[in-house]
């Protein structure tokens, strides 16, 4: 059986999950007006999801946190699950991540508490159809902007899926466990394991820290506290010593910048960060290590490795080339989808 | 001071123009932004100006750190000389002072041993430079308020300050772009939308503009409010020498 038209699908939210928001790649270009970027915490898993359902541009998907929502599909659409292992199900059959599935009228998508990782993405062919604000559908709950009324999903919500016409998609039956579909190339981030150090480029404001402070930062273990959300991860560990003041004249920051306020404990700025901040920033975590950080749960320990800007950019280029290759493979895979009977 | 460039992670740089809040530095940053835009470079993703720094996010697949430094370096020369006939943008923000719209006006007046009318004429008699936007969409950090109306923040913040509220916090003044909790002394309210998400140019103000608060009465407030996003703000090009109350 082959399909090539996916029209007018609607998703009904039966249960919202723990904290589920609509995200695309974020609001790029509006930080000069104070608008935070938002977008996915784990952009790598998000982008692979987009490619798996055949989206050539990154569009609205669901970012689930710890427990995914339960959704009923009206119409026909293709979905894929990427990121954290929440044991996703279609009609109560556990399905693998990193494989596209077709859902028909009445199919129920759900899952359980995450077995590994914190954030899972549910991608839909065509993308979620909600109004764009400043070029993006990404939800920023603190600014009450984007997604559905600027908030997380709640039971009873309904949203449309944009229509998509594409080359023929071949549908195969899914036989459940034992049907080996595990795609290691897509699944493996490559290179680093979960608890290897996060690599950091020191910034100009590193001069606000003592030699001892920098040494502590680069060698000790920091724990993710309960104050970790889409805005930032507050870490707890040995005090990172300042020379004198922890305050600077507010300036810009990026995803991964590490602020250290006067209490000496670092805060990593994440997807929903404010555009500017007034605390000294010791450095910034490299792009390739951010998806890994965003999947770590509260209570986990991390440590940092200081790398030069030259090494960081070598790693960046290798990482991006590999990611594009994986996205290419995922896109090729999107023409063969599975169906749960 | 010559600005210095440093890396912010693997795909951004920060240009430090000197750690002071000063209109000349702010102008230098804006001039740099214009020069970078004139280069029409591919892969410049964000330009985020702040009080005395400029953040540039770039595509690190196109440029290495040393390459982007070499490209940006020539844009940092201070080219413009200070002239009083240089044109700047003044955006009028019509504001009702006092009453239910400005519950703290009387406190600001008594705190500074002034009448309410004196506070209004001082506050609306200065054109305020927009140094930067940040904190929440459309929130402006303004400079130039007369210190004779400076007033400390509320000892206990209010849970809800309506959008458009004009406040004073210490020696700062500004407008709340959206409903939010806050501790500023509220002296008035504007009916104008500071950040209109339905527009491509969403923010009414940008860094480098000047804000002029224009006193209006309640009927004018309701007339403008009723126009909603159809209201066309009054924006003037003014010579620097003609700005009000700017030292």
Please, could you describe this protein's structure?
- The complex is a heterodimer of chains A (341) and B (247).
- By secondary structure, chain A is an alpha+beta fold.
- Chain A is 16% helix and 34% strand.
- Chain A has 5 helices and 25 strands.
- In chain A, strands 23-16-17-20-19-22-15-24 form an 8-stranded mixed sheet, covered by helices on one side. A 7-stranded antiparallel sheet of chain A has the order 8-7-10-5-2-13-12, with no helix packed on it.
- Chain B is an alpha+beta fold and 247 residues long.
- Chain B has 2 domains: 4-76, Gyrase A, domain 2 (2-Layer Sandwich), CATH 3.30.1360.40; 87-242, Cyclophilin (Beta Barrel).
- The two termini of chain B are 22 Å apart.
- Chain A: Residues 32-322 form the Carboxyltransferase domain.
- Chain A: This is Carboxylase.
Question: Descriptors for this entry?
Answer:
heterodimer; A: 341 residues; alpha+beta; Cyclophilin; 2 domains; 8-stranded mixed sheet; 25 strands; elongated; B: 247 residues; Gyrase A, domain 2; 4-stranded antiparallel sheet; 30% strand
Write a concise synopsis of the structure shown.
The complex is a heterodimer of chains A (341) and B (247). By secondary structure, chain A is α+β, with helices and mostly antiparallel strands. Chain A is built from five helices and 25 strands.
Chart the SSEs and their pairings.
The complex is a heterodimer of chains A (341) and B (247).
Chain A lengths: L1 E5 L3 E6 L5 E3 L19 H10 L8 E5 L4 E5 L2 E9 L3 E2 L2 E2 L6 E3 L4 E3 L5 E9 L3 E2 L28 E4 L2 E11 L9 H4 L10 E5 L8 H9 L2 E7 L3 E5 L10 E6 L4 E3 L7 E3 L6 E4 L1 E5 L4 H5 L6 E2 L1 E3 L2 H25 L2 E5 L1
Parallel strand pairs in A: 14-25, 15-24
Antiparallel strand pairs in A: 1-14, 2-5, 2-13, 3-4, 4-11, 5-10, 6-9, 6-11, 7-8, 7-10, 12-13, 15-22, 16-17, 16-23, 17-20, 18-21, 19-20, 19-22
Chain B lengths: L3 E4 L4 E5 L6 H16 L5 E6 L3 E6 L6 H8 L14 E11 L7 H7 L4 H9 L2 E7 L6 E4 L14 E4 L3 E5 L2 E4 L4 E3 L2 E5 L20 E6 L2 H10 L7 E5 L8
Parallel strand pairs in B: 5-13
Antiparallel strand pairs in B: 1-2, 2-4, 3-4, 5-12, 5-14, 6-7, 6-13, 8-11, 9-10, 9-12
């Amino acid at each position: 059986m082959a399909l090539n038209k996916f029209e007018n699908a609607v998703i009904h939210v039966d249960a919202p999950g723990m904290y589920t928001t609509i995200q695309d790649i974020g609001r790029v270009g509006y930080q000069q007006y104070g608008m935070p970027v938002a977008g996915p915490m784990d952009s790598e898993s998000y982008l692979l999801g987009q490619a798996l359902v055949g989206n050539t541009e990154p569009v609205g998907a669901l970012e689930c946190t710890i427990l995914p929502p339960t959704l009923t599909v009206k119409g026909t659409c293709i979905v894929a699950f990427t990121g954290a292992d929440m044991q996703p199900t279609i009609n109560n059959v556990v399905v693998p991540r990193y494989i596209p599935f077709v859902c028909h009228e009445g199919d129920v998508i759900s899952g359980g508490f995450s077995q590994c990782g914190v954030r899972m993405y549910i991608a839909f062919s065509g993308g979620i159809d909600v109004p764009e604000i400043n070029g993006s559908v990404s939800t920023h709950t603190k600014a009450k902007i984007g997604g559905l009324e600027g908030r997380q999903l709640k039971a009873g919500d309904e949203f449309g899926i944009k229509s998509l016409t594409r080359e023929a998609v071949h549908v195969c039956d899914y036989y459940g466990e034992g049907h080996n579909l595990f795609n290691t190339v897509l699944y493996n981030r490559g290179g680093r394991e979960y608890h290897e150090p996060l690599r950091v480029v020191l910034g100009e404001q590193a001069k606000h820290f003592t030699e001892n402070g920098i040494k502590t930062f680069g060698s000790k273990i920091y724990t993710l506290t309960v104050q970790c959300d889409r805005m930032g991860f507050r870490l707890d560990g040995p005090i990172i010593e300042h020379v004198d003041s922890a305050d600077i004249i507010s300036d810009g920051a990026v995803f991964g910048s590490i602020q250290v306020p006067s209490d000496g404990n670092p805060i990593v700025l994440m997807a929903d960060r404010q555009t500017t901040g007034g605390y000294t920033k010791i450095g910034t975590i490299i792009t390739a290590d951010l998806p890994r950080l965003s999947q770590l749960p509260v209570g986990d320990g991390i440590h940092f490795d200081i790398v030069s800007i030259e090494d960081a950019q070598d790693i960046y280029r290798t990482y991006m080339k590999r990611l594009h290759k994986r996205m290419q493979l995922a896109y090729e895979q999107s023409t063969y989808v599975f169906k749960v009977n | 001071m010559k600005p210095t460039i440093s890396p912010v992670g693997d795909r951004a740089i920060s240009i430090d123009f000197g750690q002071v809040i000063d209109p000349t530095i702010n102008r230098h940053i804006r001039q740099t932004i214009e020069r970078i835009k004139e280069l029409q470079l591919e892969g410049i993703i964000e330009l985020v100006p702040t009080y005395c720094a400029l953040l540039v996010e770039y595509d690190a697949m196109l440029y290495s750190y040393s390459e982007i430094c070499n490209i940006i370096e020539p844009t940092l020369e201070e080219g413009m000389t200070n002239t009083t006939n240089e044109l700047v943008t003044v955006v009028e923000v019509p504001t009702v002072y006092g009453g239910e719209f400005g519950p703290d006006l009387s406190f600001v007046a008594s705190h500074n041993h002034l009448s309410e009318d004196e506070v209004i004429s001082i506050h609306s008699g200065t054109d305020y430079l927009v140094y930067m936007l940040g904190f929440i969409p459309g929130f402006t950090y303004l400079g130039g308020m007369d210190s004779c109306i400076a007033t400390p923040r509320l000892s206990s913040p209010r849970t809800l300050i309506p959008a458009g509220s004009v406040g004073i916090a210490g020696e700062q003044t500004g407008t709340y772009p959206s409903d939010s909790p806050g501790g500023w002394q509220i002296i008035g309210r504007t009916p104008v939308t500071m950040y209109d998400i339905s527009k491509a140019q969403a923010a009414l103000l940008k860094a480098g503009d000047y804000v002029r608060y224009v006193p209006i009465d309640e009927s004018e407030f309701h007339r403008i409010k009723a126009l909603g996003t159809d209201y066309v703000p009054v924006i003037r090009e003014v010579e620097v020498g003609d700005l009000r109350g700017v030292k």
